[in-house]
Specification:
The protein is an alpha+beta fold and 189 residues long. Helices cover 24% and strands 20% of the residues. It has 3 helices and 8 strands. The chain starts with a helix and ends with a strand.
């Protein structure tokens, strides 16, 4: 159980590091494009709107970004943002993931649908950009969503630099644990 929890924790930390690097890009505006990423930050009183997705797609296209082979950009949104988006979509532009899975080779983990050139992925790991007044908001306020083009970010894999877990059983400490009472589990990247 400890190994499972440590592995889960280190995966979260790696995910957070990548997310923070993307969110901290200079040049990312409230709804911005260019250089292969578009960040959508919704203000404290606003809802995520279909317009925000259309604008992000337009900005990415206007910067001559390529699309993925399926013709879409993936967008990563918090579930509260998706609630706003899907509850406001009455134009028929929303397409649930189960309606097009036969046409797609690979579905992203957490993918819930697509619209206006963006495959919509739900993730609770989306960064909170603003503190909503009065605590936790039930709206999309203050979450950063990202719509990515190919090449938005790269992760360098160094030989031997991947996440590793270590399990040391009872008695492995030698003379430091003379009565074999200690075991340890750890991880590093």
């Amino acid at each position: 159980g400890a190994l499972r929890e440590i592995s889960k924790d280190i995966a979260r930390k790696m995910d957070k590091h990548i997310r923070d690097q993307i969110s901290g890009r200079s040049g990312a505006l409230s709804v911005a494009g260019g250089n292969a990423t578009s960040e959508v930050t919704v203000g404290t009183d606003d809802l995520l709107k279909v317009w925000d997705l259309i604008e992000s797609e337009t900005l990415l296209d206007s910067e001559d970004n390529y699309r993925f082979p399926d013709g879409y950009y993936p967008g990563i949104f918090h579930p509260k943002q998706l609630f706003d988006l899907m509850s406001a979509t009455t134009t028929g532009s929303w397409q649930d993931v189960h309606k097009y899975t036969a046409d797609v080779q690979q579905i992203y983990r957490g993918e819930v649908g697509r619209m206006y050139g963006i495959r919509v992925v739900s993730s609770t790991r989306v960064q909170r950009a603003l503190a909503a007044a009065g605590g936790i908001s039930t709206k999309a306020s203050g979450y950063r969503a990202h719509i990515l083009a190919p090449g938005a970010y790269h992760v360098v894999e160094l030989e031997g630099g991947n996440a590793q877990t270590f399990v040391k059983g009872l008695g492995s400490a030698g003379t430091a644990d003379p009565v074999n009472q200690e075991a340890s589990v750890g991880a590093k990247v």
